[in-house]
């Protein structure tokens, strides 16, 4: 590449092109995970589909490594690359809600918070994750689970349509009626098949929810985990409730008497009035010891969605591993508790997110997301603001995962995988759907142009 080529490319885009040496370069290349430091050759800020087409063609024709950045929330930093071209979609962040059809067209640069803000005004929501800074594109393309999943399914299960720029620079729309094979692949297959520029989602009536954290001394965690596993299959699907093994942060708003103490957390969100929410939780809470605190209350849905934002700002050190979990045996609980007692930092955690209910009413073969018979999606995350803690949080996460993985299924939610886990893990995540995905990859991206991702290589 020479400066003249890049200058011509920059002149052909409506958005801003940033290159090494520009004053804004270092800020523009920063990633959510501060443990990862990548230096792309060019960052192309796209503002519309025409910009994306131009950028894809430029990258392909000049044999540049391409990385696609939506919300930029990816754990292993797959929204960037070294010495290549980053196609940055963050400026494409418009949301248009159709309240009559209960749908929303969402730009690929949107965060979950952008979507929640737009839909909540109409008393509607799309099922999504638990941190509002999460990019909706990466969340959707690899599945997406959160508080509304038990009732309304994965984020990808609520995808109706997607606009896509393919590797050859062509533009297509994928839905059940048009390019249905591509649509199948987009619902869980990640960013392997093209650059999605906008999504159309089915929305659901969600407004005020009864939600908040309930925390116990981790000394009670064995009992809580046992009761939780027994309670969940009988719980109404309006109740989203994930379990965490964590540490209470030594800062407000947490009571100072609990600072630095290990806890077992139930983070609850009931889609409905407080009275019914309390009734739904009573069979579980009545069988448990008194908690340290119960901060549940009525709140707007976007409030619970953003509750953890302040704890996990951009630039922290992150290393995570995930698994799909079908059963939670007593032996597995013992392994969890042994490892959770060794957390290397106050922010490090283990979460079990329910993926039952509506998720299991869709067949394994109906979308690329294959693991429809698991009960939970687990994540173990070593987190700390100090770069000098990168080694300890990584080692703890790996050791924890190695201790509990024998009790889990073979695959994991792709968004909870780092880029050092190998093809076998990705194939396990997709199971019987992997070969179809590889065949579709060969059709839509035969040269594997889009490979900075949890990569599915084209079928031979």
Question: What does this 3D model show about the protein?
Answer:
This protein has 460 residues and is an alpha+beta fold. It is 27% helix and 23% strand. Strands 12, 13, 14, 15, 16, 17, 18 and 19 form an eight-stranded antiparallel β-sheet that branches. A five-stranded antiparallel β-sheet has the order 5-6-10-8-9. β5 (95-98) and β6 form a beta hairpin. α11 runs antiparallel to α12 (390-404). The model has no long low-confidence stretch (mean pLDDT 97).
Key features of this structure:
14 helices; alpha+beta; flavoprotein; five-stranded antiparallel sheet; oxidoreductase; 19 strands; globular
Quick recap of the structure?
A hairpin with a 4-residue loop joins strand 5 (about 95-100) and strand 6. About 25% of the residues lie in helices and about 25% in strands. The chain is globular.
Report Rg. Answer: 22 Å
Low-pLDDT stretches? none
Our count of helices gives: 14
Largest sheet: 8 strands, antiparallel
| Shape annotation | globular
Domain FAD-binding PCMH-type: 35-206
Protein name: FAD-binding oxidoreductase
Organism: Mesorhizobium onobrychidis
InterPro entries: BBE, FAD-bd_PCMH, FAD-bd_PCMH-like_sf, FAD-bd_PCMH_sub1, FAD-bd_PCMH_sub2, FAD-linked_Oxidoreductase, Oxid_FAD_bind_N, Oxy_OxRdtase_FAD_BS
Which helices and strands appear, and what pairs or packs with what?
Elements: H1 3-11, E1 17-19, H2 25-28, E2 42-45, H3 49-61, E3 66-69, E4 85-88, E5 95-98, E6 103-107, H4 112-120, E7 124-125, H5 136-141, H6 149-152, E8 159-165, E9 171-175, H7 180-186, E10 195-202, E11 204-205, E12 208-217, H8 221-231, E13 239-247, E14 262-270, H9 274-285, E15 293-294, E16 297-300, H10 301-305, E17 317-325, H11 330-340, E18 349-354, E19 376-384, H12 390-404, H13 423-430, H14 434-444
